[in-house]
Amino acid sequence: MCRVERANLRVVAGAALPAASALDAEGFEASCMDSFVSSWSARGFSPVFIENATGVLERFLTLLAVPAWEAGPDDVDAVVAQLVTNGLAASTRRGYVQAFKDFHRFLVVRKAAEIEATFGVHLIDPVDEFNASRHVGNDSPSEKAPPTPERMEEFFGFLRDRIATARKFGPAARDYALYRTLYHAGLRADEASSLELADLHFGRGPFGKIHVRFGKGTRGSGPRPRWVPMLDQLDLILRWFVDDVRPKLPESNALFCDEGGGAIHRGESAWV
């Protein structure tokens, strides 16, 4: 969608000059986009994330009828309405809006003075409570780089040491195995809590596999089962858990059970 050049005037040193042309605005926006993408690299995001996130932002800006710094709530509403018309799911639309919000915040922090001096626009956040779906905010995890492998080793070292001093060995050792499974297998919390002992298949493949029977579906399709390999010595951790830790927990089918034998839920911890 091409953008319509606006005939606004801006005042510089007492002289009335026409605002920058649409071509200048597009070039400046592209330059800002390049700087924003570079900031992702500086914060340690992976090339795959950067490529996907850049594509989402570019598509949002293409649908936007004005430069990013001129966008108001009505402009964002129009883009969201177009995404709905295109059949995008609510979670996907949230991703689009969040990508634009992140970019707009970058403009506020890094380019506000230049934009006001060049285009005469004072930046105001165009994403409000009426056009933002849930979970869209400035505190989104997408703004933070994932923890480094060294940081994760420190975390797991803390968990290992905590097992020896915890009031109850079983729950503390369960939590260690659970967090290891989340990290190395890439499972969601709900997927891991739904695992049963029978879902561990140590003889399947070179390292063993986990049968995630209640994998997250899309667009209301329901659970989508999948197989996940036990990489990075996760098989050794889960063997230790099944042989040495699980017998100390209540008897049940749940792999990571609570002290009553049911599946563990979010918020439960052995460190009380």
Tally the helices. Answer: 8
End-to-end separation in angstroms reads: 57 Å
Order of helices and strands: EEHHHHHHHEEEH
What is the number of independent domains?
A: 2
Task: Please state roughly what percent of the residues sit in beta strands, choosing from under 5%, 5-15%, 15-25%, 25-35%, 35-45% or over 45%.
Answer: 5-15%
> For the report, how would you describe the main beta sheet?
3 strands, antiparallel
Strand order of the largest sheet: 3-4-5
What is the helix fraction of residues, given as a range? 40-55%
Structural class computed from helices and strand pairing = mainly alpha
Compute the average pLDDT: 82
Number of strands: 5
Radius of gyration: 25 Å
Uncertain residue segments: 1-23, 134-141
Shape: elongated
Furnish the topology, listing elements before pairings.
Layout: E1 9-12, E2 15-18, H1 22-42, H2 47-63, H3 73-85, H4 90-119, H5 149-165, H6 169-185, H7 189-193, E3 200-201, E4 209-212, E5 226-229, H8 234-245
Antiparallel strand pairs: 1-2, 3-4, 4-5
